[in-house]
Amino acid sequence: MNVILLLLSITILFSIPLLIEADAQTSYDVNIPTGAANPDATYFWQSEKDGSTSGIIEIMVGDTIVWKNADTAAHTVTSGTASDGPDNLFDSGLFAPGKSFSYKFTETGNYPYFCLVHEWMDGSITVTTGYSIIPNVGKQAGDGSIFFDVEYDFNGVLSTVAIDEQQKSITFEIVSDMVSGNNDLELRLPSELLDGPFVVWVDDQKLSDFEHIQDDGLNVLLVPLDADSKIITIVGTSIVPEFGPMTMVILAVSIVTMVFLSQRFKTRI
Questions:
Q1: How many whole angstroms from its chain centre is CA 261?
Q2: CA geometry: angle at 50 spanning 48 and 55, to 5°?
Q3: Which helix (H) or strand (E) segment is 47 a member of?
Q4: For residues 177 and 224, what is the distance between their CA atoms, to the nearest angstrom?
Q5: Rounded CA gap, 212 and 217, in Å?
Q6: Which residues pair with 151 in a beta bridge?
Q7: For a Cys-Cys bond, which of 57, 156, 190, 245 suits 178, CB 3.0-4.6 Å?
Q8: Is the Cβ–Cβ distance between 67 and 30 less than 8 Å?
Q9: How far, in Å, CA of 212 to CA of 221, rounded?
Q10: By mean pLDDT, which of 78-82, 142-146, 148-152, 229-233 is the weakest?
Q11: DSSP category for residue 146
């Protein structure tokens, strides 16, 4: 009897990490509704996580999305965009009504997807480590070739309003109502996007009580906000390069060509 209890205890002990891991990883359903094959349909996806019909869903690393086909037509769930084509990360192939396709996301990032047969059906999955993400920050600057996903922790939703290369600043807008509770914002800015020292403005008021922590290539800003705050502007000392790598190569080639031609012109004279 004692041996049986001992074996049972050992089994339970070794099962605890597995139970914790299973609980930490979640599966979310995204339904393809009846009529989605029609471009005039009211919506093409419905997330059971939050009821959203945009096809956009935010999850954490290790989570799984299950796309379920409730339409009368076959569809695909293909990573990439209709304009650029598949990016070969995942592809369901055609799956019939009543069937499903699942994919587990193991890395952070923004993953667009669409239906190869019905290209107006598109969406995206944002995978975080517990932080929310503003994708493609910096794409508005320079030639658009250098940009970053910016992580933040906040009880509302942020979006990028503008990047001012001359002022070396990025402005964010709060685009949702804040949930009651702590209104402090933790903003994680890559140093290559915007570097400090920083000045922080909230609704045209300069703050003096924010915190700045440098963490392995990240500038972590802790910004206290009020429940009615709307606009946050972060001013730094250097911002995402005005010219991307390809532009710099073209510029260098142009300079070398101009020098070469000018030398040849002088020689002929």
A1: 46
A2: 75
A3: strand 46-47
A4: 16
A5: 13
A6: 133, 188
A7: 156
A8: yes
A9: 5
A10: 142-146
A11: -
Cβ atoms of 185 and 207 closer than 8 Å? no
Total Cβ atoms within 10 A of residue 80: 19
Q: pLDDT tens, 80-130?
A: 999 999 999 999 999 999 999 999 999 988 999 999 999 999 999 998 877
As given in the structure block, the two tokens for residue 79 are 């990573």
Residue labelled with tokens 């140093």: 191
* Residue 256, token pair as written in the block: 């070398």
| The pLDDT of residue 199 is above 60 | yes
192: Cα separation from own chain's centroid: 17
For the entire predicted model, the pTM comes to: 0.50
Q: Tell me how far apart the alpha carbons of residues 161 and 167 are, in angstroms, rounded to a whole number.
A: 14
**What token pair was written down for 205?**
């008021």
What's the pLDDT tens digit per position in 117-130? Answer: 999 999 999 988 77
Ordered structural domains, the chain, with CATH: 2-128 (2.60.40.420), 132-239 (2.60.40)
